[in-house]
Amino acid sequence: MPERSSLVRAGRAAAAVGATTTAASAVGSLAGAAYFARRVLTPERERPDDTEVLEVRDGGRRVLLSATPETVVPGRYGLWLDGGAGHVRLGDLTDADVAEGTVERKVLGVDVGTLEPGGARFDGYFYSGTPRSALGLPFENVEIDGELGSMPAWLVPPAAGDGRRWAVLVHGRGARREETLRALPTLHRAGWTSLVPTYRNDPGVPAGPDGRYNLGLSEWRDIESAIAYAVPAGAREVVLFGWSMGGAIVLQVLDRSELADRVSRVVLDGPVIDWGDVIDHHARLHRVPGTVSALSRSMMGSRWGKRLVGVHESVDVARTDWVRRADELRHPMLLIHSADDEFVPVGPSRLLAQHRPDLVTFEEWRVARHCKEWNTDVPRWERVVADYLG
């Protein structure tokens, strides 16, 4: 996943810079913190391969892959080929050889390109393309007028009903709209119109003034524009979906948008409930000194630090801490989060559910990695979401 590789490199580099602080004083600490903060906030355009296709077997019905923390997990997944130009849908594990470092998986379909030995990139979207090409669902390409200009979106009508119930689906940091495709069949069957917008710094759309992510603190305005599109188009009820940073964006919409009262409910999958917790988690993983991690957060949110970090408006990480701000929430929400999420720790989701049992319905998964709960148990995910929206 793009967001993962970006923060991994950030952690390693910041750790290397931060390691000089004992010998080079606060200058090294400041440099390490600035670098770490920039990497957290910088969109990653290059998406490197992370998996090796070792052998195509059984006439293309099975494939042997290098064993990685991602490829060994049960479930349905996708595989990007040729730098993202090709795509394959993979089924469950059929064999694994720990000693050899390999896994074998079913091949459910080749969407684009040719499956052959070589580099590839594992992904949790499972589907690729558009709602029509991936799922056979009718859809329309629409343009949403936003703060920064026109933002493309997919509009998927419901299978039945009057079309007045709308779901706005918000993908995560460094992800693409395809991340949301997994949810569309459930919404389509249940009679929901689905709107899948892009937001600033997505590929091919207007960038923010600084070209950096603001962790939801500016992106929320683009999702507000999506709601503003839905209401005159007939929406009488709006549900917001958010994956990963998309969850952080949704929470800022609920807090700051004048249209928040149009939202009836929220569904969050592997959400960032507290960016400070996520940043500290990655700092610990990569042995970034705690002082460097704390300083990076301070720099993001301060006037003096934003120039060093390269942001147009301060990124106040404290505003993203919804465990601390739990009493301010007023919208019912379904939280889906895996205890084995390696990228966004489940702790803040658990705590938010404990603090607001009146609002939060919490569904905890096991085994699934970041935002891959659907992949490991499709029937459960679809049942939980359909029941909540019903």
From TrEMBL:
<dbReference type="InterPro" id="IPR000073">
    <property type="entry name" value="AB_hydrolase_1"/>
</dbReference>
<dbReference type="Pfam" id="PF12697">
    <property type="entry name" value="Abhydrolase_6"/>
</dbReference>
<feature type="domain" description="AB hydrolase-1">
    <location>
        <begin position="168"/>
        <end position="345"/>
    </location>
</feature>
<keyword id="KW-0378">Hydrolase</keyword>
<dbReference type="GO" id="GO:0052689">
    <property type="term" value="F:carboxylic ester hydrolase activity"/>
</dbReference>
<comment type="similarity">
    <text>Belongs to the AB hydrolase superfamily. FUS2 hydrolase family.</text>
</comment>
<dbReference type="InterPro" id="IPR050261">
    <property type="entry name" value="FrsA_esterase"/>
</dbReference>
<protein>
    <recommendedName>
        <fullName>AB hydrolase-1 domain-containing protein</fullName>
    </recommendedName>
</protein>
<dbReference type="InterPro" id="IPR029058">
    <property type="entry name" value="AB_hydrolase_fold"/>
</dbReference>
